[in-house]
Write a structure and sequence with these properties.
This protein is of the alpha+beta class. The protein is about 45% helix and about 25% strand. Strands 4-5-3-2-1-6 form a six-stranded antiparallel sheet. Helix 1 crosses helix 2 and helix 5 crosses helix 6. The radius of gyration is 24 Å and the shape is elongated. The N and C termini lie far apart (about 75 Å). InterPro entries: bHLH_dom (IPR011598), FAMA/SPEECHLESS/MUTE-like (IPR044283), HLH_DNA-bd_sf (IPR036638).
Length: about 240
């Protein structure tokens, strides 16, 4: 009887541990409710998290090992910040009104600067991508079906575009994944928010075309429609 009681206790503890493990693992990684599926899904989820962590740590080491560029320059003319390049993608009417405001003489203390808060969306049948400026950072969100290793690919693309990943949150619901990035604009970044949304969209399209899940559209008009960028801007006075 003692052996039976020990075995029952062991099975009970194992079932409790499996319940906890299943609650911590996104549902899309677990196809069935058996022990092998739960443990296998948890292992796959941990491996993907390890890839993201290794990519972020490698980025941190490269950044700490390189030379730091001082933001305060001794030259009389200030160096334009990378955020100003993102803001330069506004409409022509907004740019002309901003120029007129600067040309109007006014006291230095009472000068009011208009800052554009820009956002761009690039949606397709594969994924929805949204990029938005928030202060000195960029908020990037992608909504798509689950693609193994997609987070690592996006991080590699963002690093190549001189954008530093400050924060990453991954939310899942069934077979859908939402990636939310907080990015720091690098000094060498030369992209607008529209270009950023388009480049991230391409990471989804290339993978799906490679896997045979999506065919490239043949007509040029259809391609432009699938990757049409919608930009909106709103002025905010400081």
């Amino acid at each position: 009887m003692s052996h039976i009681a020990v075995e029952r206790n062991r099975r009970r503890q194992m079932n409790e541990h499996l319940k906890v493990l299943r609650s911590l693992t996104p549902g899309l990684y677990i196809k069935r409710g058996d022990q092998a599926s739960i443990i296998g899904g948890a292992i796959e989820f941990i491996k993907e998290l390890q890839q993201v962590l290794e990519s972020l740590e490698a980025r941190k080491k490269r950044r700490s090992g390189g030379s730091f560029i001082s933001r305060t320059s001794s030259s009389p003319s200030p160096t334009p910040s990378p955020r100003s390049h993102f803001l330069s993608s506004g409409s022509s009417s907004a740019a002309s009104s901003s120029t007129t405001t600067m040309a109007t003489p006014s006291p230095p203390v009472a000068t009011t600067t208009m800052i554009k808060e820009l956002a761009a969306c690039c949606n397709s049948a594969v994924a929805d991508v949204e990029a938005k400026i928030s202060g000195s950072n960029v908020l990037l969100r992608t909504l798509s079906r689950r693609i193994p290793g997609q987070a690592v690919r996006m991080i590699a693309v963002l690093e190549g575009l001189h954008l530093e990943v400050l924060h990453l949150n991954i939310s899942t619901m069934e077979d859908t994944v939402l990636h939310s990035f907080v990015l720091k604009i690098g000094l060498e970044c030369q992209l607008s928010v529209e270009d950023l949304a388009y480049e991230v969209q391409q990471t989804f399209v290339v993978v799906c075309c490679r896997d045979g899940d999506l065919e490239l559209p043949e007509p040029a008009d259809q391609s432009q429609e699938n990757h049409r960028l919608m930009m909106y801007s709103s002025a905010m006075a400081i």
